[in-house]
Amino acid sequence: MPSALITGITGQDGLYLSELLLAKGYEVYGLIRGQNNPKYELVRELVPDVKLLTGDLTDFSSLIRALEVAKPDEVYNLGAISFVAYSWENALVTSDVTGKGVLNMIEAVRLYAGDDLNQVKFYQASSSEMFGKVQEVPQRESTLLWPRSPYGVAKVFGHYMTINYRESYGMHASSGILFNHESPRRGPEFVTRKVSQAVARISLGLQEDITLGNLDAKRDWGFAGDYVDAMWRMLQQPEGDDYVVATGETHSIRELLDIAFAHVGIEDWGHLVKQDPRFMRPAEVDLLIGDPTKAQEKLGWTRQVDFPTLVTMMVENDLAEQRALNGR
Ligand code: NAP
Ligand code: F7E
């Protein structure tokens, strides 16, 4: 039975990836931080077969200990401070976790693996946020990186460290440059879930309106369940490499609002959406669109869920959740 260690087990991707690996017969270990993590029960409930180990990406010795217990064939480094807006106000801790945390994890793997470095395959969760002020449209593996946020800068560090360990030590280390991916498990601070929750609540009479930032920003949004499959495929290749994972389509926040409101029968949403500079960013990433050709050709990966299906899936989930919470 192959074994995998996942950091970021309590996050959106950690949960989908554990389900995928458990279904494939893996023994799955998840790293969970903090002395009383509020998401502990959620993980226990959704993926009870995952074995939880305590540890933190900023605590090197905890990573070594986790590797010694899990004895993994594959390590998926998904742990990060992942909210871009937060990273401006918390740039140092973002650099420590999202940037230096990658070095801690990959160095721990190198020391743990000893002479047989290829016995442990490593996946790094890199991000389209690294493209920032895009130098090419669509963005591909070779596109020049120009990050626009402390989060993006930290991810660039982790990306190049992963490449460096592959080139320096011959490790099977892969960097997945994933574009935005969403789901009903997305944190409510991210714009898709903020919209799906608000639209559900407005249609049920529980909320009057929603306040957002830049409605003209564009993202290449896919479904998280599809994207964790690409992570697994990367680690089944004979060698580590870098791959863009994206849909190849881009949509604005306005289009997101169109689809979400239309699903609850509201065609004209102008009076329901307010804007506040609080939700604007010091430097915006205006247009993200990825070219997933390499992932399609080398990994045989394709996305299954399109944008309208994704948005309606999220609104449906929030309608059910809000009805249950509010007895409607
Ligand atoms: P998420 O839901 O925000 O989950 C982040 C995870 O990181 C949580 O489990 C969190 O644990 C953990 N974490 C935070 N600080 C940590 C620390 N110091 N030590 C160990 N773990 C820590 O993120 P996601 O959407 O699942 O994304 C997974 C990864 O992919 C992240 O690295 C993210 O940056 C990257 N990524 C995401 C997207 C996307 O669109 N979703 C796109 C590209 C790349 P707690 O619950 O304890 O906070
Ligand atoms: O913002 C705009 C905002 O916070 C998307 C993370 O998973 O994907 C994610 O980062 C866009 C931005 O995601 C609001 O300005 C407008 O242009 O949902 P988001 P993100 O910043 O793209 C990348 C690939 C990652 O790697 C990250 O970890 O939406 N926007 N109004 C807003 N965004 C938020 N959050 N809230 C608003 O009110």
Structure characterization notes:
This protein has 328 residues and is of the alpha/beta class. The protein folds into 2 domains: 3-181 and 223-245, NAD(P)-binding Rossmann-like Domain (Rossmann fold); 187-219 and 249-288 and 306-326, UDP-galactose 4-epimerase, domain 1 (Alpha-Beta Complex). It is 43% helix and 15% strand. It has helices spanning 12-23, 40-46, 60-70, 84-89, 91-113, 150-169, 191-203, 224-235, 253-263, 293-299, 307-326, and strands at residues 3-7, 27-32, 51-54, 74-77, 121-127, 173-178, 181-182, 210-212, 218-219, 222-223, 242-245, 251-252, 273-275. The strands form 4 sheets. The protein has a 7-stranded parallel beta sheet, sandwiched between helices. A two-stranded parallel sheet has the order 7-10. It is globular, with a radius of gyration of 20 Å. The model has no long low-confidence stretch (mean pLDDT 97). Bound molecules: NADP nicotinamide-adenine-dinucleotide phosphate (NAP) and ligand F7E.
